[in-house]
Amino acid sequence: MAAGGGRLTAVGDPERDGWRLGPGRRPFFALCEETDVPGTGHGLSKGASLCGIPGDRLTVYRGPFDPTRDTACPGCRAQVLGDPEPTLQDLLRHRVRGAVPGPLRAELLAALKQGAQVGLWVSGRAAELVRRHARRERIVEGGALVEAVVGADGPLGLARVVHGTREFLVFLPQDGRPFVARAEPGP
Fold this sequence. Notes:
With 187 residues, the chain is α+β, with helices and mostly antiparallel strands. It contains six helices and nine strands, in the order H-E-E-E-E-H-H-H-E-H-E-H-E-E-E.
């Protein structure tokens, strides 16, 4: 409890408290991570992450959120630093960090960091998206998890990333962990 019986919060309210940040200073936000997707730092404010993840899905740590770290969420970073909106590559890289670990994930993260192009990012029913945009016969690596997602036919996000001669497919199931597959480059 704060002096006077009030609650302590991660950041003060400049309007209420009558203070302004000086040049080169930033407000303090507590560090948190999405409980099911560790590895990406978020800033905590008013019971949710700065990028909108509800508090019940977060693990909060005793320490500050550092928006300059490579593992910082692009949306939270933009909120704190006043950066322009994160790029599509930034947003996808953030999601891929929480994907099933493996060499494809590591390769895709490196490609996104280098500016690989996100050629497609769509959402819909799993079976239809895979039929229209992923074409199982073209998947040459990581296809085992695709069958389970198609079989469940739940809501799915699907992204295609092309980097050099490599084509990656990122499967973003609504009720599961993202995973990466590799496909033969298509037309």
